[in-house]
Amino acid sequence: MIDTHMHADARSGEDFEKMFLAGIDTAITCSYYPYKIPHEMILLNHLNRILELDTKRAMEHGLELKVALGIHPTNSNVNPEIIFDELYKWIETDQIVAIGEIGLEDLTDSEISVFERQLDIANETKSKVIIHTPRRNKREVLKRILEIVPQHIEESQAVIDHINPEVVCDAIDSDCMLGLTVQPQKMDEFEAISILDEYGFDRFLLNSDISNKPSDPLSVPKTVRELVRKGYENKEIEKVSSLNAKEFFRL
To answer: What is the rounded (10 degree) CA torsion for 191, 246, 8, 70?
Structure first.
């Protein structure tokens, strides 16, 4: 199994071990510094910590971490240029599998500017992007994201994450992959399965988004086991448990 979106810097080694023992071989950890920060060097240190430290911590417990780095909308208040320069280096040296997580939260001018610039970098370097959608005003923000993305990159380069039953109909007609986040206060496994039941398994990725917020490191295997229990075909289950992620992120 592959957990396609988590935040390893906020989690313990015990969580990594639980995930590995439950059948998660690979996870993608994304950048997200949960506080407003006064200087871009703090953000750069955060990104380097993910790349250099958290990957090693996870591997000590058997979990292979792939990395996505970028400027989360929460951190769009800093001068982004040094981060953009580093993104080019990380992409060129194959240290990251995507730019992420990026996106919009409050639709501020700075968020939109930073988001669009990162999409342009993805277009220039043919990179994948992991796009955040917020808990609040999700439909309004998702609409703006869907307007912006095709102006900068091919939709097939993007996964729009944290999709739930209320907004899946708004995104399903795009060519983006869609991330289903099974996390307390966001969506449970039964809601995720209801989406798969209605729209099929080809366009979706599963993730836990474990972070500093209430989280369940086993939400992906719990969802997969519930699909097995309900009798879905193995070839369909394999798509959302691993195959879609392997193909999309070229793992």
So the answer is: -100
